[in-house]
Write a structure and sequence with these properties.
Chain lengths: 111, 116
């Protein structure tokens, strides 16, 4: 049950776009379209922002988008805003042995 | 409104036990799987355990298998996590989540501290 690999930090200026990668294996990200992304502001509960690789829950801004290619999933945040500064985690179903696997987490900083 | 309220955390000595509870409202509890996720101080999110809607199937991270037991009471809309043989590395904020292939609702968490 190894964690999915994410960059430790990504930064961007207001209005720009950034992309966070999430690399797994053929046992998780590469096989299942059950990749989700969570936004976590310290001191609050994590918030689901993408599920099923690219679907957005009701109420989540369309500035957030997800995709997948092979064993790597990606989260793109467009039109960066101050409130986007947070930690972001990917998560993938890993089959009945691993079930859920989180990514290592990425801190997004707005310059 | 969906609500998940965790309780039962606290300070416990290494080797000790705790039972976490999660009281749920705002959705039909018996229709959904549930999951516990934790975050150790300064660390990332870690999946701990999941249970199917009926409670018949349970799943555990390698780090807690054999020491933690997840269960649910569908009559009382409550999720549990029984923890025994606690270790300092179990120190974390424990979140209860509603799980339908993705964790769409989270509680605010309950803190477990394992220390002598």
């Amino acid at each position: 049950q190894s964690a999915l690999t994410q960059p430790a930090s990504v930064s961007g200026s207001p209005g720009q776009s950034i992309t966070i990668s999430c690399t797994g294996t053929s046992n998780d990200v590469g096989t299942y379209n059950l990749v989700s992304w969570y936004q976590h502001h310290p001191g609050t509960a994590p918030k689901l922002i993408i599920y099923g690789v690219s679907k957005r829950p009701s109420g989540v801004s369309n500035r957030f988008s997800g995709s997948k290619s092979g064993n790597t999933a990606s989260l793109t945040i467009s039109g960066l805003q101050a409130d986007d500064e947070a930690d972001y985690y990917c998560c993938s179903y890993g089959g009945t042995s691993a079930f859920n696997v989180f990514g290592t987490g990425t801190t997004v900083t707005i310059l | 409104e969906v609500r998940l309220l965790e309780s039962g955390g606290g300070l416990v000595q290494p080797g000790g036990s705790l039972r976490l509870s999660c009281a749920v409202s705002g959705f039909t509890f018996r229709d959904f799987a549930m999951t516990w996720v934790r975050q150790a101080p300064g660390k990332g999110l870690e999946w701990v355990s999941s249970i199917t809607d009926s409670g018949h199937s349970t799943y555990y991270a390698d780090s807690v298998r054999g020491r933690f037991a997840i269960s649910r009471d569908n009559s009382n809309n409550t999720l549990y996590l029984q923890m025994i043989g606690l270790r300092p590395e179990d120190t974390a904020l424990y979140y209860c989540t509603k799980d339908q292939g993705h964790m769409d609702f989270w509680g605010q968490g309950t803190t477990v501290t394992v220390s002598s």
